[in-house]
What does this fold into?
Amino acid sequence: MYDDSPDGLAALADSIAGLVGAPVTIEDDASELITYSPGQEYSDDARVATILSRRVPDRYRPLLRHERLDVRLAGSSAPLYADFRASGLLPRAVMPIRVDDLSVGSIWAIVPTAPSREQRAALEESAALAAPVLARQIARRRGEEARRTEAVRALLGGGPQAAEAAAELPLPPGPLAVVALRPTAPAPSGEPLRRALAGLGGLAGLADGAVHAEADGAGYAVLPVRDEQRLARVVRELPGRAGLLAGVGRTVPGPDLLDRSRSDADLVVRLLTRLGGGAGGTAAHIRDVHLDALLMQTVDLADEAGHDPLGAIADLEAYDRERGTDLLDSLARYLASGEDARLAARQLHIHPNTLRYRLRRAHEIAGLDLADPAAKFEIQLRLRLRSLRLP
It folds into this structure.
């Protein structure tokens, strides 16, 4: 039996390396490094990077799909062989570690060829040695994650309980902001979200004391803010954020107001979801999309009340659709060009007189009066809603 102290884990790895006859690493089910054996001097870049970062770096994750290795690992109780030489890495013998038929981790041994019968038996024996250690590690990690998640939920709710949670975590005093991350599509393992959250706080030395947790299908990070612009830039450039939408809430002076920052972050993510990650991008700070977010909320309120938020614009759109005309697009182009009929006509590849005729028809059909400043502002606002593709 081995305990899960640093010395106990090192002894376990050393024992397994002796049984297998090869340098090994032991990883948990999230590809976090649990321990490694001595004798790694002649390993490869992936092994060195894993040891230094205490986890399998993202750039090597695609190798798990080599011959569906990730799928085979999840369902296997026997050693596997993975020849990575075509990728410039050394081959591995991989042994899943299971507890009660649940995969809790794996042993990775660098071997020159497919494992022999003796090595396979040694790997199976090693997995039995490592299983109770990883089970305790995972139980401890899940307990810590549950407590942290509860504390982060309290933070996100703001008020007095947020101040208590900040002291418990602990979260350093000073300005704070919430970053929300949500997958664009469900990920079976949830791994992209977990990795992005784990990398957010430490990226580019952004800030010490960041805390994060998953809640309600999204990931939330609460970060001390030293430079708001840098925070927004770091979130946009976050490695491994593919497939995730990210919203950054306002900076607040302390934890009691974090509910406002969380609401902002959720609102940004909802807006980006509505936009499909197109013109709005896949990450934004609330200050950069506040107007669009307010328009989205206006649309939602109108829908709840049974109103069409596009008003007369919707009528003109329906007219164009039924008759194959382009009155609405012509109107939008005219206003976007600063009401320069010649410029708008050139952009539409029509004569200016044709454009003027279309504008008159738009007025006759939908009552869109460009001569009235208040009416024109309303038209522009409704066109903005339409251009944002908000329903």
